[in-house]
């Protein structure tokens, strides 16, 4: 286990796109560091992901912490660095960012977004990508030919009821992807955003009028169905190879043509 460049660090690893991607990367031969935030009631879903990864013959080290907390981030990276050193200087080949926690409220009105809610949403869903990447670069934990991949959405350029703060976060996330792609180019690290189609995940169900959004996307999508986390996971696993790092700085649609169908 843990050959150089075959570890993945998945942020948001216990459900939705993060869980599916952690499992698919394990199938592709990666050992997995997973970061998630779960209370007692939902901890079993994280435990199930860990068990499934181990049943695939890969190693899984999961951390139930707030990924947006500076101190917790450093603790996780310290632990990861120690494990990698024990594995003969292995490195992280994939950083996958799938943190979905933000305020879903109107921008104006009697119960509108507050400053703290906007700042929290951008910190968790956008800026944390930058901070985790900075930490791994500073510690020289990325493998040559590594990939940084972050989940964006159509909301980066399209408005939806109650989605304003998340839209701002997705737009900021894509800006971070562009900048990191340029700055990490000399290190041969690729950075891309994955724009998934609308999917029925625990995070998505919290979006106001989600049933209406689902119906809209089912009408639009040429394939006649919603995206599922496995669609994204398979694409990430196919992309996350050292040979594909020339492909960087992009927003990659994984949606069956939903975005371009209008």
Structural account:
The protein is of the alpha/beta class and 262 residues long. It has a single domain, classed as Rossmann fold (3-Layer(aba) Sandwich). The chain is 43% helix and 17% strand. The protein has 8 helices and 7 strands. The chain has helices spanning 16-27, 43-55, 70-86, 115-138, 164-184, 210-220, 229-239, 258-261, and strands spanning 7-11, 31-36, 60-64, 92-97, 142-152, 190-196, 251-254. It is globular and about 55 Å long.
Low-confidence stretches: 1-5
Number of domains: 1
The CATH class turns out to be Alpha Beta
CATH fold description: Rossmann fold
Shape: globular
- SSE sequence, one letter per element: EHEHEHEHEHEHHEH
Helix and strand topology:
Blueprint: E1 7-11, H1 16-27, E2 31-36, H2 43-55, E3 60-64, H3 70-86, E4 92-97, H4 115-138, E5 142-152, H5 164-184, E6 190-196, H6 210-220, H7 229-239, E7 251-254, H8 258-261
Parallel strand pairs: 1-2, 1-4, 2-3, 4-5, 5-6, 6-7
Keywords for this entry:
single chain; 262 residues; alpha/beta; Rossmann fold; seven-stranded parallel beta sheet; 7 strands; disordered N terminus
Quick structural overview:
The chain contains 8 helices and 7 strands, in the order E-H-E-H-E-H-E-H-E-H-E-H-H-E-H. It is globular and about 55 Å long.
């Amino acid at each position: 286990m843990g050959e150089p460049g075959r570890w993945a660090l998945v942020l948001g690893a216990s459900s939705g796109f993060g869980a599916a991607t952690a499992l698919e990367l394990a199938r592709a031969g990666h050992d997995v560091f997973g970061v998630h935030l779960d209370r007692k009631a939902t901890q079993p879903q994280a435990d199930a992901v860990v068990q499934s990864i181990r049943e695939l013959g890969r190693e899984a080290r999961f951390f139930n912490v707030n990924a947006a907390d500076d101190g917790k981030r450093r603790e996780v990276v310290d632990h990861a660095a120690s494990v990698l050193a024990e594995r003969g200087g292995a490195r992280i080949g994939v950083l996958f960012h799938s943190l979905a926690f933000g305020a879903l409220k109107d921008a104006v009105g009697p119960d509108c977004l507050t400053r703290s809610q906007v700042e929290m949403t951008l910190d968790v869903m956008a800026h944390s990508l930058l901070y985790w990447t900075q930490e791994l670069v500073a510690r020289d934990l990325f493998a040559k030919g590594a990939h940084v991949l972050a989940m964006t959405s159509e909301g980066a350029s399209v408005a939806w009821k109650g989605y304003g703060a998340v839209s701002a976060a997705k737009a900021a996330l894509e800006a971070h992807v562009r900048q990191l792609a340029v700055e990490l180019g000399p290190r041969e690290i690729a950075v891309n955003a994955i724009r998934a189609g609308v999917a029925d995940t625990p995070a998505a169900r919290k979006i106001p009028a989600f049933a209406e959004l689902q119906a809209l996307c089912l009408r639009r999508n040429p394939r006649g169905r919603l995206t599922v986390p496995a669609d994204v996971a398979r694409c990430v696993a196919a992309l996350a190879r050292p040979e594909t790092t020339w492909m960087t700085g992009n927003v990659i649609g994984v949606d069956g043509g939903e975005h371009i169908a209008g």
